[in-house]
Amino acid sequence: MSVITWKYASPQYFYPLAGKMIPWFSVLALLFGAAGLWLGFFVAPTDAQQGEGYRIIFIHVGASWMSMFIYLTMAFWAGIGLSFNTRMSSMMATALAPTGAMFAFLSLWTGALWGKPMWGTWWVWDARLTSELILLFLYLGFIALQAAIDEPRRADKAGAILALVGVVNVPIIYFSVKWWNTLHQGASVSLTQAPSMAKTMLLGMLMMALCLWMYTLAVALMRVRVIMLERERHSEWVAQLPEVQP
Fold it and tell me: Which of 31, 36, 110, 135 has the most CB atoms at less than 10 Å from its CB?
């Protein structure tokens, strides 16, 4: 098993494997997304307190989860790359950052759409909202820092340090509604308590979360393949690829 793992840690072998996995994750994203949107917008009942406006959570919650999960994954790969100087790890961290930034922005945007009718305002300097905004800035800082350094290895190391420092913000986002008195409602889904919502609502939310997860895998693999070709363009294995033949 370890031999197989180390084999695919090489861009030469991971590149074709990623190409084979992308269509599967793309199809799963479409299927989960269609099911989640259908359940969320057409099957799930109207909320007794929030009315129809609550349906934004079927996008908002998944985007918020993924913004935090992707950052942890990005920091993990960046840390592995920094510690062991592995090329693939740093490439994966770089590939994940734009998608994580997109989900952080989507979380804030959909949160604002929900907050206007519920709170009467688009934005408040709430602990959860502010820490999520900081997460977006961390993603953008990671992307900008790597883009500002021409030498890829130096860029990877600088980005990894920023990513690892920023990890402390993720538990702050998650526990902010427990640590401080905030406007943002508590978690509707918990590992230690029964869900506080109808089963169709919960199923629709989980379908959308799986959709965004599959989307993330597909897009990250697409992006890391491009990064591989760019960084390994002088390698013999890249020259032999049919898609780069003149």
Answer: 135
